[in-house]
Design a protein that fits this description.
This protein has one domain: TIM Barrel (Alpha-Beta Barrel), CATH 3.20.20.140. Strands 1-2-3-4-5-6-7-8 form an eight-stranded parallel sheet. 47% of the residues are buried. Helices cover 45% and strands 15% of the residues. Helix 2 runs parallel beside helix 4 and helix 8 packs parallel to helix 10. The chain is α/β, with parallel strands linked by helices.
Length: 275
């Protein structure tokens, strides 16, 4: 079965704290991004046919050293796209998005607890999202749920806010809402451009009642709007694929349905052609 990994990270270093590891992604320039890819390449190769690479630094793609990274990624994957997190508080975000639209980026990302997005920030996030929509670029929101700031930096709240205006491009809920999987499903039930992406949550909540909520949510919205992702290296590629396959098989998904979840839905979302 072919696999398109919707959520693949390239931190320069893995630390005990996930937040510290994510910080290394924020620091990327073109050269360090290429170095990080080289470090992770052997642990990725052979597992997936395509990937959507999550980048926390727009500068990494706007750097003169960037072509070596693009060439290396193109050699590893049959298909790849990139999602970039932008600093919505910066006046330069719009010019950066203009430049990135000429690159191989397909979505912008907002990360509520990493970017410390509170309700007062929502209008600024919306304006940048609407500009991305005008360029035909999708919007992804991290909807994982946790930490002592879980009520202050709430990705599902942000996703609901954006969903009333972001209607012409896909709105992707990374991690499927996590502990708020039912909330994610209820939003997707109303908004037909909302997709649920599986990374991290299937592994983290394995054996819990939330795993049952995820199964219920995916069946409710239908197979065409579920996307497989690993969240590598925060979840190993091998463990992510194994757990996801076991999850969908145990919930009686057919081979045709699993092909959509693991590969075809992402290909269709990004309008990619398979050879």
């Amino acid at each position: 079965m072919k696999i398109f990994d919707f959520n693949l990270h390239l931190p320069l270093a893995l630390n005990d704290s996930v937040e510290q590891s994510l910080e290394t992604e924020l620091m990327h320039d073109g050269q360090s991004l290429y170095k990080a890819f080289s470090q992770h390449k052997d642990k990725i190769e052979g597992y997936v046919n395509g990937a959507n690479i999550m980048l926390f630094s727009a500068d990494a793609l706007l750097d003169n050293a960037e072509p070596s990274f693009i060439e290396s990624v193109s050699n590893l994957f049959d298909h790849f796209t990139m999602t970039v997190m932008l600093d919505f508080r910066s006046k330069e975000a719009y010019s950066a998005l203009d430049a990135l639209s000429k690159k191989n980026i397909s979505a912008i990302k907002f990360h509520s607890y990493f970017q410390k997005i509170t309700d007062s920030d929502f209008p600024d996030v919306l304006r940048l999202s609407e500009y991305a929509q005008s360029l035909g670029i999708s919007v992804a929101v991290c909807t994982s749920y946790g930490t002592s700031n879980m009520y202050l930096f709430d990705g599902m709240h942000l996703a609901c806010y954006l969903s009333n205006a972001i209607t012409r491009v896909p709105l992707i809920l990374l991690h499927s809402g996590g502990a708020k999987a039912i909330d994610a499903m209820l939003l997707a039930a109303e908004k037909k451009n909302v997709y649920l992406e599986s990374s991290f949550s299937l592994n983290y909540y394995q054996g819990s009642t939330i795993e049952k909520d995820l199964a219920f949510s995916y069946r409710k919205i239908g197979v065409d709007r579920i996307l497989y992702g690993s969240d590598y290296p925060y979840v190993s590629m091998e463990d992510s694929i194994r757990v996801a396959q076991e999850f969908f098989l145990s919930n009686h998904y057919s081979e045709v349905e699993m092909e959509k979840i693991f590969f075809l839905n992402a290909m269709n979302l990004f309008q990619l052609q398979d050879d």
